[in-house]
Amino acid sequence: MSFSAKNTVIIILGPTGVGKTALSILIAKALGTEIISADSMQIYRHMDIGTAKPSAEELRAIPHHMIDILSPAESFSAGMFRERAKEAIDGLLAKNRIPIIVGGTGLYIRSLTEGLFEGPGADWPLREKLMEDEKIHGSGHLYKYLCEIDPAAAEKISPNDLRRTVRALEVSLKEDKKISECRQLSTKPADYNFIKIGLSRDREELYRMIEERVDKMMEEGLLDETGRLLSMAPERTALQALGYREMEQCLEGSIGLEEAVRLTKKRTKMYAKRQMTWFRKEQGINWVDITGLVSADDIYEKVLNKVEILREIIYS
User: 124-186, what's its fold?
Assistant: First the structure.
């Protein structure tokens, strides 16, 4: 590398449907490198349409990692992603190539940029006791308790999120120290120089593009793909993904096709909103508003104009 980019990793992030894939392909071509997917659903085989995987042509043009690595019945965690992604990153860096991570699964990306705190295994008797206390003393009792023993952890949890409140108390009581302290001691970012590029669009435009994308998925055969998945993996993890669960309801006869499509669009928009809320809290992201841009070339040019360090890497 002529640019002093030792241990540099490029991350392209943003909400679903914003245009990450097309941009990543052009940057990968410019750098002669490979792409690592950070999408929690693209890891599954046989789920091509509903997860909007790169096309066969794009996959032939640029090698991709972390796509089609599991069957739909298997589960996968952010910790497992971190380990596999690090292997791919280190392999590319060893060949003097700058890895490009692309995706919208915020926890996967954070597992690399900030590290993960997994904590001790579940203590079911303790959880049951805590839940019983909540029933006896009323809603909000456990959250008040968490505020008393670990206000730093409570600040990051909604008062209505009982599951996370119980987990925070469980860890604190088992480890005999605050969960916030446990996180500080055990959470370490991966040792890379991350360049984070975030793509955003006007909300109305993004929502319109999501609707068009769902319509295209239906034309390409999302309903049939869901049917094939159901026959392959009735005990499945992956079929809880957006689009598939709605199509499953349709195939089972509990809702009509029109309603399944409407729900898919609605829930995908809600997911995109949650993604942006998550990413807006992340530090060090170079945000580029690509509202009005459709062509991958136009998006690429705007990103290069806005992100000086990326321009320096590509033209060095």
Answer: Histone, subunit A (1.10.20)
